[in-house]
Design brief:
This protein is an alpha+beta fold and 205 residues long. The chain has 6 helices and 3 strands.
Length: 205
Amino acid sequence: MSLLPPNSTSFEQRIENATLIDLDPEIILKLWNPWTCPLHLLPQLAWALSVDEWSDNWDETTQRQVVANSVQIHRLKGTVGAVELAMSSTGNKTRLVEWWQMQPPGVPHTFTAEVNIDQRGMSEDTITSLERQINRAKPVRSHYTMRLIAETQLNMRIACAVVSGETVEIRPLQLTEIEAEPVHVTAGIGGQDWAIVTIYPKTNL
């Protein structure tokens, strides 16, 4: 039953019909969760949460992580935490080194963004996108250098064996006596022969 007056407009009637739809609140909650939102709706969720950088070429895990970090990045913008969140969105192992942590200490208000690319790799477009995200999250006064680190692992087995011995040789050789043992030769021959004789007719003796 409608509560609108008889002279209500079609627009008002459509709004009323929309509010009468029975929607499960759990479905709405899933749409606002970057980890449960359907993949085809992620771009709209990214727009709603003011994601600064977006690419349809990113894999699904990266897209969801960028959306999940967006609100916290906006809360922390201009701090180290915001930069670290922006860097971690790529899914690669990252590390931020501030100027006072360098050996020797670097120029004040500078930092190094280290990104490990050994497992997933990074295309030029991804690197450019990451730079834009860092630029939006960092303090305006800060400048940085990006280091791409590639690490490899090598399984190596090493075995070692030592054989030690000693040979003693005395020179010059001196023969004092030569004895020749007698040689015994034994020979033999044998033979065997047989014949079977059958006499016909057989008679009784």
